[in-house]
Amino acid sequence: MKYHGFNMLYMFSKSYADNPAAINERELDFIAKHGFNYIRIPMDYRFWTDGFNYTEPIEEKFALIDHYYETCKKFGLHVCLNLHRAPGYCINANHLEKHNLWKDEEAFQAFVFLWEKLARRYQGISATEMSFDLLNEPPDVGKYGFTRDIHQQIMRPTIAAIKAIDPDRPIVIDGVGGGHEAMPEMADAGVIHSGRGYTPFQISHNQAGWCGDEMEWIEPVYPGISDDEQYWDRDALIEFYQPWRDVEKQGVEIIIGEFGCYNQTPNDIAIRWLSDLLSVYKEFGWGYALWNFKGPFGIVEHNRPGTKFRDMDGFMVDGELLALMKENME
């Protein structure tokens, strides 16, 4: 089965609030009614951890994950649990971490401990209902001491630990380089590989403040010249994903765990790019998850300039984007 759906930010970042977001059943009903079947839940380990006491989690917080799973199940939606912030690493505000996942044994042991705990908790749940996405968007080689070899030394034992508890649990690993780079060296790991749909970055993240002062934003155009003075069109997107297709030829399933366009890109440009992007995924037979449902990247109330919204079941929806997503499901 191919999965198509959305990232839902119930436990995305503890810095947002002291409590996770309440699950909105109306949103899930809308998602399921329009033919989607997949919810990726990025999580921040700090929701269930007091300080950096990694191996003494607050048990009642896991009941919230249970609730998310049970509610999604009610609507026939597969749940993918993802560690967006793991002990020792997050692509956002990594300076908040005490340890380094790529250097510190304590962080590595905490990482394995946490996935073993989740594996035991959800042991026996059908593979069609839940999967584990181990680590969101590992960094570029050289950053924080990250190397591809060290990454394998973390991912492979973690995969083995989960499989020892629950052999049938589907496991997902994100591409390195922030999720964009394929991992042929992990093609034999028996897991799903997850890519990203944020290229070219000047279109997908135009004016995004969290990208830092190092970004020099240019006026987004598509098709046209964007990142690194490269010309981007549908053919360029196909070429960009060739390393992923090469890995796929080795028997690896590919999914795009995140894609989307920030609301500072004019909507006509966003739609042209997203139309090509989604058509490429359909051509390749890849599933995908939009970041996110409601908000500056979503299909509801994103407020990109030039968008015509439709009132659908009480949601102000970008009907053009919704139609594109539905047209490009396999």
Overview of this structure, please?
- There is one protein chain.
- The longest helix is centred in the middle third of the chain and has 18 residues, at 148-165.
- The chain has 330 residues and is an alpha/beta fold.
- Strands 1-2-3-5-6-7-10-11 form an eight-stranded parallel barrel. The protein has a two-stranded antiparallel sheet with strand order 8-9. The protein has a two-stranded antiparallel ribbon with strand order 12-13.
- It has one domain (4-327): Glycosidases (TIM Barrel), CATH 3.20.20.80.
- The mean pLDDT is 94.
- The chain is built from nine helices and 13 strands.
- Helix 3 (105-121) runs parallel beside helix 4 and helix 8 (267-284) packs parallel to helix 9.
- The protein is globular.
- It has helices at residues 25-33, 59-74, 105-121, 148-165, 201-204, 234-240, 242-248, 267-284, 319-327; strands at residues 4-7, 38-44, 78-86, 89-90, 130-133, 171-174, 192-197, 224-225, 231-232, 254-259, 287-290, 309-312, 315-318.
